[in-house]
Amino acid sequence: MSLPTVVPLSWYLALSATLFVIGVIGVLVRRNALIIFMSIELMLNAANLAFVAFAQHHKSLDGQIFVFFVMTVAAAEVAIGLAIIVNVFRLKETVYVDEINLLKG
Amino acid sequence: MAQVWSNPDFQFVFWALVKILVILHAMLGVVSYVIYAERKIAGHMQARMGPNRVGPAGLLQPVADVLKLFFKEEFVPEGANKVIFHIAPMLAVIPALVTFAVVPFGPTDAFVVTDINVGLLLFLALSSLGVYSITLGGWSSNNKYALLGGLRSSAQMISYELAMGLSTIGVLLLSGSLSLVDIVKAQEHMWFVAFQPVAFGIFMITALAETNRAPFDLPEAEAELVAGFHTEYSSMKFGLFFLGEFANVLSICSIATTLFLGGWNGPWLPDSLKFLWFFAKLSALVFFFIWVRWTYPRLRYDQLMNLGWKVLLPLSLANILVTAVVLYWRHNG
Amino acid sequence: MIPILFVAFALIVVGCALMVILHRNPVTSALFLVLSFCGLAGLYVLLQAEFLAMVQVIVYAGAIMVLFLFVIMYLNLKRDREDGMPFVLRRGVGWAVGLVLLAEGALLMARRWAPGPIDLSLPPAIGNTAAIGQTLYSRYLFPFEVTSILLLVAMVGAVLIGRGRTQPPPGGTAR
User: Fold this and answer.
1) How many domains would you assign to chain A?
2) Which residues pair with A96 in a beta bridge?
3) Which one of B118, B122, B229 would you mutate to disrupt binding with C, by most C Cβ within 10 Å of its Cβ?
4) What residues make up the domain containing A29?
């Protein structure tokens, strides 16, 4: 199979969609809170890839600026999320989201 | 055959591979002899001769060391994660050696493997990746001393990475480019250390902390933590950690030479021999590293973190502020 | 040359992402995620966004994942134990939803809705970093400043939440 000389935008979007779906499957299937968190990071990165691909396609830098902000917010979110997970672990001795069910009726 | 050769992509890859092989072998040889130099200098500083039995004046000592390490028994501790246990030493060497791909050893294109326009950021990225080897090495050994040493060292490295990155921003402001080749070219008339002495000081201190050398070597402290994160490593895996530490020293000193001491700039020599100036400056910085190790006592862990966060970080931020203000005034009259 | 690099990086990214969600040991998942991020950085370089590629490695692979590894090692997590009927059922539903999403994406791609080939003209003479800097500090200055406050809040919050109880344990500190 002969590859084209330039990589079309649809390839990047397909890759971004695949990565996002893998992240979604990770969140739905895994029960370990840390793995769920990692899958959320995968989804964020899939969105980042789509942003950068479109920025290159439309020759505008706005997509890349937005990726910059997404990375910053993701870093802040990871810091707080991990602090919460550590705190929950101190209380319940577990990171499996099924066992964190104190509020369950 | 001629058709393959005339393809510009192929030529680019081929010459890059040639340069990589030359630089890799040269730097690995230099690293082995830096280890010898350390032992000799340490010896003389302690009023004794260093190694002088193996070969003339002990020059074959690194060869003897490597052979000894090869013949030692390899064992993997019980309960260790085998894959990560084997990968961690490799991760110690790889980022340090990859840094040499962007360092300009001489004036022309033949002396730098690749001149990417974000060379400085690549160095910072690789030093961020260097944290993994110690963290994983400490954790995968299934040994509490190793784990403690690994976690302490990673915390130390990520704390000092910040001050190191910020201290290079002054150089970035002066040269206007992230490419290391451009930074060296901008120092033709005056080295940046004359304009950024505080940043140079901060960079050298954080470089000592990043490479886990004394006085910041509590993570591998011989007296406190058995041997820190490489307690359980033997034979060539330990050799790789050791090699990685010195390769790291060499790569950070190369970057310091490039950023602050003018790289290959120097009088009297023709262009094709300017790399000798680079190696002279590099040797001076490596000697400084060795000198500091055998002079100062070790910092306690809380003193270390105090220094990184409460002293060096605000100082590097102040340096950026002052540099930016002065440049703005000069530019706007 | 570039399409070959794209395929190589894409395989790395997707392969490592699959290993992240499939592997049982959290540390190995984290390491595969680091590899995935490095592959993604390669893709950014192919898209002529080299500053973002380096920032991706520094921030994601070099800082965020180190934080993940710290927490995993601090909590001393071993291999995941997952058993029991409800898990198998939930796992099946999860995979089914994922496949439905993927089919939807494939359908969208097949309908020629996505635009055609990228026009790979020369990158602008100013360089990616300088261009981002100029845009970021002029047009996006306010979001930039707000983001810095966000980071400050996150830092304070993480320290407070992670610190746990501040009162000394009952019975004094001597044990």
Assistant:
1) 1
2) A32
3) B118
4) 9-94
